[in-house]
Amino acid sequence: MKSHRPVLTALAAGLLAAFAASAFAAGGTTTTTTTESSKLATTYTTFAGSDANANALVDGLRNGTAITLETTSTVKNANGTTSTVTTPTTFQPATGKLGYGNVNIALALAEADLGKLGITDPTAAQIEAALNGGTVTLADGSTENLQGVLALRAQGEGWGQISKTLGTGKLGDVVSASKTRHSQAGATHMQHGSEMASSNRPEHPVHPDRPQRPDVSQHPEMPQHPQVPHRPDIPDHVGGPGH
Q1: 7 three-class SS
Q2: DSSP-derived 3-state class of residue 210
Q3: Is 108 left (phi over 0), alpha (psi -120 to 50) or beta?
Q4: Element (H or E) spanning 84, and its range?
Q5: For the packed helices 100-115 and 159-166, what is the interaxial angle rounded to 10 degrees?
Q6: In 44-148, where does DSSP find H-type helix?
Q7: With contact defined as beta carbons under 8 Å apart, do 128 and 91 qualify?
Q8: pLDDT digits (tens, 9 = 90+) for 61-76
Q9: 100: which residues sit within 8 A by CB, 6+ positions away?
Q10: pTM beyond cutoff 0.70
């Protein structure tokens, strides 16, 4: 009777290899997705108002899920003190899931649409209006109705047509301007952080002057030895008697 053990061993090895390859591919995809999401969120941190808001925008648009943004403001109390109030705004994107490239375009168009109205530091409600459509209040108290980037997209308009409808100019210029603006903001933030870190570093103590070494180039004169007195002349020996 032939043994089936070699066949089973080969089958098990094949299954393990396939499982390992699948796990590796899944891990690589997760890492890539996380990197793209974080990079895109960092780009729109200033526009969103915080890192948390930027991540919420990117994740919500990417997955087609509800987005919750928070706006922090300072209010004056009746007793003259001030308090910080955080107001959440939750909305469902008018479109379904978007690829990261489309998320970038949607946010760039929303930022440009608010920017042409003079809104450069939008609240959560203003960001919602720029994306889904709605009314925003301007600095002078007047109101403006926004058609909404995602609302127009849901109606079947292409990104280029949406940019034209909103009056924000050519799509390529809008995306390029957004990238340049946020790159400069990031560089300024990094420079400011570097300057703050440098200013907080303790100054190196000034070492006291070291005492000057004596000049050893000239050796002190050696004392002169006293002259040895001359020995007296020894007289010639007198011849002995008989000589």
Answers
A1: helix
A2: coil
A3: alpha
A4: strand 82-91
A5: 10
A6: 45-48, 51-63, 100-115, 124-132
A7: yes
A8: 999 999 999 998 888 8
A9: 36, 37, 40, 58, 62
A10: no
